[in-house]
Specification:
This is GNAT family N-acetyltransferase. Keywords: Acyltransferase, Transferase. By secondary structure, the protein is an alpha+beta fold. It has a single domain (2-139), classed as Gcn5-related N-acetyltransferase (GNAT) (Aminopeptidase), CATH 3.40.630. It is built from four helices and five strands. A five-stranded mixed beta sheet has the order 1-2-3-4-5.
Length: 154
């Protein structure tokens, strides 16, 4: 149904715009940041975590594509790799492609890829106001291991 393929530089530029917008919105919702502060933080975070973009060490940045159309892009998946563990830094299905089983298929393909790389555990964070994402992750075998909390001191 889907495949994960390495992202190219042009695709990374598109992804960067989407990531910053989505992460900034998450920061506004969960951390009560102003729009400007959230966008700046999102941009700085991406640049810090992927300093060489798609060539950054210990990261896999993939486009999610349809097998029937390998150059299509229906979403993005960015995974950080730490020894034999992985962390999903970002997982995004484009709005027009949601609710078609592609998210589940992408997570299953990711598991196969990670196992092939010698990874034996994968984690993630899900925003509290995103129950559909939480439900998807639970259907795919993820379970709650803790709760993140923070307080803004400004």
């Amino acid at each position: 149904m889907i495949l994960l393929r390495d992202m190219n530089a042009e695709e990374f530029a598109k992804y960067r715009t989407i990531f910053i917008g989505e992460y900034a919105q998450d920061l506004q919702n969960t951390r009560v940041y102003s729009a400007e502060k959230a966008r700046n933080q999102a941009s700085e975070t991406l640049d810090m975590m992927l300093p060489q973009g798609i060539e950054s060490h210990d990261n896999a940045v993939w486009c999610i594509s349809l097998c029937a159309e390998p150059q299509s892009t229906v979403g993005y998946l960015w995974v950080g790799l730490i020894r034999q563990a992985a962390w999903i830094n970002d997982f995004y299905i484009l709005p027009d492609w949601r609710n078609r089983g592609l998210g589940r298929a992408a997570l299953m393909e990711m598991k196969v890829r990670l196992k092939g790389m010698g990874i034996n555990e994968v984690g993630l964070r899900v925003a509290p106001e995103n129950p559909s994402a939480k439900a998807l992750y639970e259907k795919c075998g993820f379970h709650i291991t803790g709760i993140n909390m923070s307080q803004n001191l400004n």
